[in-house]
Amino acid sequence: MATFVLVPGAWLGAWSWEGTALALRERGHTALPMSLTGLAERASEGGPGTDLDTHIADITGFVERHDLHDVTLVGHSYAGAPVTGAAGRLGERLKRVVYVDSAPFTAGMSMLDLMPPEAADELRQQVDAVGDGWRLPMPSSEVLGLSSSLRGLDEAQRDLLRARATPQPFNTYTQRLTGPTEPGPDVDRVVVACDDFTALLDAGVPMLAFLNQPPWRRFDLPTGHWPMLSAPTELADVLDAAVS
């Protein structure tokens, strides 16, 4: 049986993994969702200095504090950035890294690099206008749906997402990834692709082509960008298959 550390994406916390974690435990695995600094129940711990390095330290500290070994580290969406940094630092504690609707970052890359300059500028303006200069509020469902698939989220789940979301410390988006980013050569590498990401991988987008080649293993999950909410049991099935 595997030991999963489940890292949520932007605006989310450990709460978002509850359904998937329960399903993994029912299959005999250890499933440990975590929240990052400044988010969910750790919102009060965040501040203007909370950045990508903070979240990398959160993940490595969580693994070390619980003295975990043979870890399957799972990151959703934004968490691909700190998970990449943590994977390069965990050494022999790490057995497998799984990117859920996400991909590993390269050294020198930031979240803002993934969007057009005008979109990045709009986020900066929002942070200055309504985020006290350091917090990025979660966009409306309508805005989210322009860039990420909401398929599978019913009205109640969308309301839950809105109600429990926490503004994202914006320096986690602006800071570039530094330090070791490559896990050990024997670490298993997995990508779980949902609707839009599946289409990108099938289209052979050059910057993502490596995810279709060994040592990467790919699993497709036909749902929207938040599978832990829209298809929690199905996501657990995929994660279980990835470690079997």
From TrEMBL:
<feature type="domain" description="AB hydrolase-1">
    <location>
        <begin position="4"/>
        <end position="238"/>
    </location>
</feature>
<dbReference type="InterPro" id="IPR000073">
    <property type="entry name" value="AB_hydrolase_1"/>
</dbReference>
<dbReference type="Pfam" id="PF12697">
    <property type="entry name" value="Abhydrolase_6"/>
</dbReference>
<dbReference type="InterPro" id="IPR029058">
    <property type="entry name" value="AB_hydrolase_fold"/>
</dbReference>
<dbReference type="GO" id="GO:0003824">
    <property type="term" value="F:catalytic activity"/>
</dbReference>
<protein>
    <submittedName>
        <fullName>Pimeloyl-ACP methyl ester carboxylesterase</fullName>
    </submittedName>
</protein>
<dbReference type="InterPro" id="IPR052897">
    <property type="entry name" value="Sec-Metab_Biosynth_Hydrolase"/>
</dbReference>
